[in-house]
Amino acid sequence: MSAAEHADRTTRQGAANDPIVDWEGFDFETREVHAGEYPDANNGLRVPPIALSAGYVFEDFDDQVERFSGVPDRSGAGAFFGDDEATPGPIYSRQGNPTNAVAEERLASLEGGVSAVAVSSGQAAISSALFALAKGGDHIVSTASIYGGTRILFGRSFARFGIEVDYVWDIDDDAEWERAIRPSTKAIYTESIPNPRNDIVDMRRVAEVAARYNLPLVVDNTVGTPALIRPFEHGADIVVHSTTKFLTGHGAAVGGAIVDGGTFDWEAAERAGRSFPLITAAPRPGLRSMLDRFGPGAYARATREAVVNDIGPSLSPFNGFLLHQGMETLSLRMERHVETSVEIASWLAEQPEVECVDYAGLPGHPLYGLAVRDYGAPAEDAAEGAAAGTGSVFGVTVRGGREGARAFFDGLRIFSRMTGIGDTRSMVLHPCTSTHATFPVEIKERLGIGEGLLRLSIGLESAEDLIADLRAALDRVD
Ligand SMILES: *Cc1c(COP(=O)(O)O)cnc(C)c1O
């Protein structure tokens, strides 16, 4: 970009002294620091503060009536969760909060979506995202390799509420999709980088299938993060996150978010016989549908008002603060997470005690081609077989099965033995006896969750120290 274009960006919103309020069009690294911030009229605070207030004052009787009847806000107080004219003033923090709104706008900007809703955990994000699309009697199709907690959520709570989930194992097999998708199917669900096996998904391929059947594609981008991959650029319609992980980044706060890409054609789906009444139907006689009122942001708005507000998984503003602050350094941290991961994955692959390393970005991995395309190594480096950065969560299988895994696990001293990923600290977990312990043996086998497999989440410590720790632990493997 030329200097003149840069100057244009910063001046196009008014005089040189006016604060920039719309960060669209700026680079990723600028938006992760600034998008969503707002000038503080009271004290000029530079950092958006933690707004600990459960509710919001109504100016007078008529203002209360208007806010509850969904009349557009006149006071401007509602601007923090939707600054379009259709937004009524805020009522209560279960629907939204100014601190969380900073995080929502920042994340929507980084993902390239139109709007986001922050919730209390990744599981809340997945449930809320899908409850806005499917009701009892409906059906969802998911790719088979997904986060263990999501598979448990689908198999237990979703099943209890009458929402059935079927899995597709080979995303390239049209016949398998054809068999799985029913008239009552309401979404296709997948992940950018599944863990523990780093078996990255060709989202463009899944998006093609979703488009063919008029289905919204929901992608869990927790492990990818928008710093590495932006699912909307690959055909996704909705993105969900466990913000507990890389986005907040320091392992201190549980949270989640739903991002609306604003791309799904709800009316075309309706015409094709797939109905999404929360988005396209009038909520009450006399009111217009969410789609009429909010256009491309209708899905996020429906999720906020008709799912999150009803069920109640709202995010604490304290955690919302940690989230918007964490995102300020996302790209820097991800660069380092990935650089160290590539170094460690390559090193592990050479060790005699290691049977296999599941890192798609390593040359020789069956998904290496896709890794280069989506997580690329620049073309000239890829031609020389350079690794591609498919995140920092991957599997390593040591020899000796469960006993080998036990010796290795117990021998680590810098790595923390714990469930969790995406922390500044490196972590290790034995999926077979933890996240996947309740899975039937045949599903574990099919997913490749063996007795010798360990999941690593590489943190921000020095690669040399981590390699020394891994080497000492491998020394204990017979
Ligand atoms: C951790 C995780 C979740 C669940 O998120 P919580 O914040 O722990 O509820 C969902 N999806 C993926 C990919 C995860 O890693």
TrEMBL record:
MF GO annotations: cysteine synthase activity; homocysteine desulfhydrase activity; methionine gamma-lyase activity; O-acetylhomoserine aminocarboxypropyltransferase activity; pyridoxal phosphate binding
GO CC annotation: cytoplasm
Record keyword Transmembrane helix present: no
InterPro entries: Cys/Met-Metab_PyrdxlP-dep_enz, Cys_met_metab_PP, OAc-hSer/O-AcSer_sulfhydrylase
Reactions performed catalytically: L-methionine + H2O = methanethiol + 2-oxobutanoate + NH4(+); L-homocysteine + H2O = 2-oxobutanoate + hydrogen sulfide + NH4(+) + H(+)
Cofactor(s) demanded: pyridoxal 5'-phosphate
GO biological process terms held by the UniProt record: cysteine biosynthetic process from serine; L-homocysteine biosynthetic process; transsulfuration
Entry EC number(s): 4.4.1.2
Enzyme's top EC category: lyase
Pfam families: Cys_Met_Meta_PP
Keywords associated with the record: Pyridoxal phosphate, Transferase
Family: Belongs to the trans-sulfuration enzymes family.
Protein name: homocysteine desulfhydrase
Organism: Leucobacter soli
Gene: metY_2
